[in-house]
Design goal:
The protein has about 150 residues and is of the alpha/beta class. About 25% of the residues lie in helices and about 30% in strands.
Length: about 150
């Protein structure tokens, strides 16, 4: 199977984990990054899975959601108060931790890919998304469940 990975870096966004017992419950920021891996049933006429230079809609999605935004869980008990008090571009997500953001981006990019007839005709799909929290921590949302099956 062929794969190609497009990396995006340096999206400054803040978040908080309201249920965390330590400092992560406070609003704080990171420089987020993404590695998005694609695969396809068939390569295009140039021999590409996707032309990585033509993924502007994905860059726009990431910019709208992660460039100078405040990421809050949909269930954050202070969501309404924070929304009223802060001058911030608040993005509500199911889970603003690395794991949740990797899955959030997977679904967002999948939706973008599914709108392209050409990509659909060739069976292009998102295989995995790695979410980088600064440069030291990352979490992966991987749709290839065989990676997680016990070895015989």
């Amino acid at each position: 199977m062929h794969t190609v990975t497009k990396s995006y870096r340096d999206f400054p966004a803040a978040h908080r984990q309201p249920d965390h017992e330590g400092h992560c419950s406070l609003i704080h920021g990171h420089n987020w990054g993404w590695d998005i891996t694609f695969t396809a049933r068939r390569l295009d006429a140039c021999g590409f899975i996707v032309d990585v230079g033509k993924l502007g809609m994905i860059k726009l999605f990431l910019t709208e959601n992660f460039d100078h935004t405040l990421l809050l869980n949909e269930t954050d008990p202070h969501l309404a108060t924070l929304h009223e008090m802060l001058f911030a571009n608040i993005v509500r997500v199911p889970n603003c931790g690395m794991e949740g953001l990797a899955e959030y981006v997977y679904h967002g990019v999948t939706e973008i890919i599914n709108k392209s007839d050409e990509y659909q005709d060739r069976g292009v799909r998102v295989l995995r998304v790695v979410c980088w929290e600064d440069s030291k921590n990352c979490a992966t949302f991987d749709t290839n469940r065989d990676n997680f099956l016990p070895q015989a």
